Amino acid sequence: MVLRFFLLAATFFLSCTEVQRDNPYDSGGINFRGGEVSPSSASTQTGIIRGTPVDYGNEIYETVVIGTQTWMARNLNYNANNSQCYDDNENNCTYFGYGRLYRWYTAMSVCPNGWHLPSQEDWTTLVKFVGSQAVGNKLKNSNNWNGRDIYGFSALPGGFCHYEWMSTSVAEVHKGCRYSHVGTNGYWWSGTESYESSAKYVEITDDDNIYGMGIVNGMGSASKDDYLFSVRCLKD
Questions:
Q1: 3-state SS class at 126
Q2: Residues 89, 91, 92, 94: what is their CA dihedral angle, to the nearest 10 degrees?
Q3: What's 44's DSSP letter?
Q4: In this structure, what DSSP letter does residue 112 have?
Q5: What was the pLDDT predicted at 96?
């Protein structure tokens, strides 16, 4: 009887420690999951309305209808000037499904004909339809980011790039791109300017299970030149 108790206790302990996962998107983590993401895998869930796929830049982009809007169902991965893969690693763009990161000026013109970079108002429309409570969780990919992905938006934590500056005796020059937050946060440009040098962006974080992107009017603001974020195209 005592032996059985200890065996049950050991089983319980192992099952508890199993759920205490390290970041599954960190290639150096002990629980690195790896594998190609499948944004369209949520199609078996209720509430997802598929639109017409878009062929752009030799890639096919699935689309979803959410309320009155039609969105691409994954981040843009068009190789434009002033765009980069996270950590300069092509696998982050393709294999892990994060797409490319863009400066704002590039983001404004990179979507295909008939599509555009969503404005702050467009993001607000999305949030109002989805419902502001737990909106981030409702939009996160269900297989690769532990979200509910109710509408097939399939958001993934692609992180961002921030260009740092270095002063010289002549002028200030870019020191290099500092990458951050892949696997925990996703950042998407909007087409709405904050000031002449900055624009609004939307953020979804790893812990967006209660409120998440609920107050879009309080969207963050970032330098158009110094930050590279993801792009999600919206149909005109």
A1: helix
A2: 130
A3: G
A4: P
A5: 94
